[in-house]
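Two records follow; treat each independently.
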Amino acid sequence: MNNHLHISLEISAADAGTFWPELPSTKSIYEIARLAQTQKEFAIEVYSPDGKIEPTTTSIRIAERKPRNSPFAGKTDPRTGVRMPDFPSDKTIILANLEFPIKGLTNLEIRPPLDTDGTASVTIGFTSQHGHTPVSSFHYLSQAEPLKIDWKDPWNTQFENQNINRHNRHPLRSFLYVEPRQIRHEILLRPRDLLQWTDQSFNAWQPLTIKRRKQLQETAEKFLLRKNPTTIDQTPVEPVSTETVFLKANNTGFTTVKEHESIEMGSLLIGYREKYPIKELPQSVTIDWKLFTESINSVPTLIQDPAGPFPTHVMPDFPDIQWRNYLYDYRAPNSDPVPVESTIAAIPMAVLFSFCFAVFFILTLRSKRVETKNKHPILFYSIVIICAVPIYYALPSELRIPLPGTINKKELKEITETLLVRLSAAYEEPQSEELKVQLANLVSRERFSYTVQNLSQIYQPLTSSGNKGSIRSIRDLEIEHADQTVVNGNKTFRIVGKWHSYIEDYSWGQMEQLPRETRASIEITQSDNYWKISAFTPLSIR
């Protein structure tokens, strides 16, 4: 909105008569578009307190429907239990663009085509934004909706109906992530508040230039470093690294602002992140929150640990963000080496002992020497049995004998899957040097750097928030091809396989989880009595 309200509508041929009530009946969508250009009345109306506002510009043409993306289209939404409408079947639509003059107006009412009961006579899904700031999430325009415009700051523009306004309206937030190898504290704030705290001016409609980006980054890191003291297990700690990124709100959460992307300061969000490495989960984490303003005296916070999220908030009277370790069945990620298990023949000790005892009896009974020397055979055998019993119970339950042999396809699949899962655990390590140590357990020394580079393409995927995601739930491994060979005297398997997994990322208060199918060529080598990956080449990622 820049002195004008722009409305863009995708209208199917079946609904055209609802938007242009006096449109002659015709089946051709091209004829409908031609006739619609001659119509003066349009069923979407905009009102101000002074009356109806007529559009100054109207454009009608044939277009292709924009792609839709929804996991619940045509299905029951598990969050609400309501069946959602399916994707429209028609791909060709009428695109109507209208522009209304609204300079200086702060109150508007958007009216869809209405029935006699005041509800919309046609289903209209819509989103809205002021500048680059989303005003509403995706909702249905089911009735007349009043809109209040803040021309000085688009962040404050909102509908009177709170149910359709975007959810991410809080200008200041805190997120504490307790992870297996690190503690992350993230702060989301607006440039307006940061500049006011540092006694600088703020103009919501100034564009984010490269110079302003650098100035904001320096200001944020200087102001926020050590602003909220952190203690881990009652010990004050300093972050090992800090990071400042620029974000913008969207219909589902937040996404990064690209380096040369055009956006005004009023729609911009600053994300500040501190990282604290840990060897194991602590018993407590406490952050002394100190960021409040006259208008912000309650700050939403989210604490996320392996058990799940815990939303709360801090206030000036209760400023501490506190996490306590109540995880009773937690298991740390396992990135230990995968040992080579030889083929074993297991003989039950009872069978072996009975066989040896039977042989002893047969040999002694047939020996004339024993018969002549032992005048009391019953006493002799009784002593033998009494001595044999404690010997039997002192022995292990079975005798395990290593056997030479080859690995079958089932065992090769288990080895491969174990390596893939433990690689995922190793990549939980955020510190690069420590990550190399973890990977050395699973990747052979030969071509280590090249192999790790290829593995990182799979195990450190970039997400929509600009972070490196994690790989979870590796499953459904399928070995398509396998060859056994010998490399440098070591048993080696060259396989081609595919598997399914999830990309997960927790950042800025949102969770991103995307399914993925990976197909790769993998070389697995027996090295120092351990199985290790000696080569890895991604073939396809879907």
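The next record belongs to a different protein.
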Amino acid sequence: MRSPVLPLTWHIVRSSGRRGLQSRLLAAGAATVGTFVLLVMVAAALGSGARADRTAWRTPEPAKHGTAVQALATTYVRHEPVTVVSVAQLPGRRGTPAPPGLTSFPGKGEVYVSPALAALLHKLPANQLADRFPKVPSYGTIGAAGLASPDELVAVVGRAPTDPAVSEAAEGSTVSDIDQAARAEISGFSGTHASLFTAYDQQTALVGVALLVMPVVVLAAASGRLGAARREQQLAALRLAGATPRQIIGMTALETAALGAAGALTGAALYAGLLPLLAEIPYGIGGWYVSQLWVGLPWLVTVVVAVTGVITLSAVSMLRQVATSPLGVAQQADPRRTRIIRLVLFVAVLLYVWSSTGGGQLSTRQVVGLLLLFYGAFWLFGPWVVDRLGRLVGRFARGPATLLAGRRLSDDPRGAWRTVSGLVLAGFAAGFFAVSMVGMDGSAHRDQVAVAGAHASQVRTLLRDAGVTATVDTVGEDDWDGLLSGTPGVIAHISGDGRARLDTAVTALTAANPARPPLTQDYVTAGDRTGIGRFAEVSTATLALSFLVATTSAGLTAAAGVLDRRRIYGLLRLAGTPLKVLDRARVRETVIPLVALAGGTTAIGVYLSYRLNRAVGASINVTGVLELAVCVAVGALAMFAAIGGSRPLLRRVTEDAARSAD
């Protein structure tokens, strides 16, 4: 016998009218946004790993039977790092493969540069950058295979085996040289140590992904429950007419899966179509190659299926009462209460997180796991708090709007929680990131250029010939606080303002020690600045996307709530309730749990950030409090704007109160 599930589902969809179509379009729109945001974050995490892999060849990998010498050096121009890879073929040895991005091994005197560096060489005067490299008639070009980003500044220089730039002195001797200077005999370019400027990009991006997963899940779950009240009434009637629980579940799963898949596929298509624009968004060392942001078909299918699955499960999970008590659903009786076990689980998770961050280093995997655990616990805890808030508000209400809001909160705490959950969880992300943007002050070495192993007289001559005014001091092994960190050499204090004068001084002093580029404040603070910069960039992107998801979720659920409750609104209007009172009740239904819960999660985010910073030995950024206040204010305004957007819809569904009540 043919199953009636498909024809009944199609009949319900066709007969739902314009209001039902609006709810379904909203659900598909939510799936589109959720899929797009999730794919973008997954692409950033995977692409960061791919970019790091493309920089590993620059750090020499020692070989037992080396055929060439490779040296890594780092210099800075306009505060941006320039990676210089010097190579020299050893005489009497077999040929060495070409570096990635080149067609052949560079010969002596050949210079290859990235397209971005080539543009900068033509833009700046020679005494600020070009004179740091050997003079050549023309520069070769490093292909994309050897670059992590189109904006990266990289040079490959062919040297003689006796050139100081590839001598043992090029290995570096200061703490700052770690990951910025290296030298070894090699037999190829199969290194596995990523560049300092890309090594931690993926780990930082994964933290952002972890913080965004739950808001996206919230949005997907909310989209699955859009039109829940209308669907429950329809299915309860079918259940009373003789439909089995399996048929009811099958009809719901079929409808929501189709809507979720359509929305998720639209989001995936939007992501694929916007890849060229997404590649222009800088992260770390610059923009992306489009291929780096393509997640691949397996990940694309996984995300689409996951979003569709969450939407379907969310809709099906609402049918327990329809299957067991269809008459109660039809009469809209027995509001679903929440249980105290939610509070117990949340407290247990908080205690576990608190103990886990009490001391010792935490890996990126552990941090991501703790964040996901907290999100999951808070997702269960939220409806319980909303339920209790509704009871308190209803008991102490002094006006009709507040009374209606309190009654609605206690009648449907899960529905009210879905409206505010996005911004509540975004508040946690805001609190976590805002105080984690640790600031640092490198002013102690500002306008200084240091050269290891140089003589003061030579430095003065080079600076004078370059037209740079400076005070030159000689430092010894006891100067651990200076740029050279205990290495004997010379430090020049450059006079005058402007980055151009410092770049000119660095270029002029390159000749003072051909084995070691001059050091500046940018060089000695590179490790800290890179980590802080990546964290700040991920935090900005995470906050922006979190508020986007939260605002979308709030707007969709508010609009769907109006459509679901149009019969109730119609009855209230027939009873003489002014439209202003209904609208105020709707707003307070959002404001009350939002203030209570968003404030709590923001405080928890700040506290967890403090614990994690303490675990890794970092300090709290006090100035981030202002940024936090701005983020919360912008998020709240966006939330109210999204809810206010459904006010015309409320007016339309109550214009003809009699027909709406029917």
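Discussion point: The chain has 24 helices and nine strands. How would you locate this feature using only the token line?
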